[in-house]
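Hi Y.,

Following your request, here is the sequence exactly as I used it, all 196 residues.
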Amino acid sequence: LPGVAYVEMVRAAVTLALPADLTQTLEFRDHAWIQPVVVDDAFALKVALQDNGEDEDGGRWLEYEIFSEGAAGETTHARGTVRCSTGAIEAEPVDLAAVDEAVDGENRDRDALYARFEALGLRYGPMMQGIADLRTDGNEVIARLHLPDAADPRFGLHPAMMDSAMQCTICLIAGLDGEGGAAVMPFAFDDMIVHG
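Below is the corresponding structure, written out as tokens. Let me know if you'd prefer a different format.
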């Protein structure tokens, strides 16, 4: 199961647990992937939400944990916190043209990119190959992502898009050239804001 699916599970659980006006903006903090899920049989993941109350600005803080229960007991797969609020978080607009110009790198062939991932042991099916264009200078990467045509519209944070964004980090960590490198994915993120 793609680890980014856990973030969508939390988003969905929060929207079911709280009134709609309190889920206009979700700010995920200190998310950690702890144990991967290998789905080889009927399998149930659970999302636990712990209400930590309101902050001075009226945002509600929830701790979350995604876990499974099995013969060996309970296994935690991910955890973090999320701030839920009614208003949008003010953010500076991003000048995409300036960001695009700042990455003075080489455009990468999409098919070669996914062949490199396969050589690293990462096999992405057609639904999870969302990188349309990618350019990197070895220190930064800029990419254009696309959602597969057959994507399920019920997702708020579609796992294919989220995973494709994470795939871009592989380009920086493992590199795109040569035979070496290791398949390394991030195991945590500090902050992500979702505007609903």
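The mean pLDDT is 86.

Thanks again,
Q.
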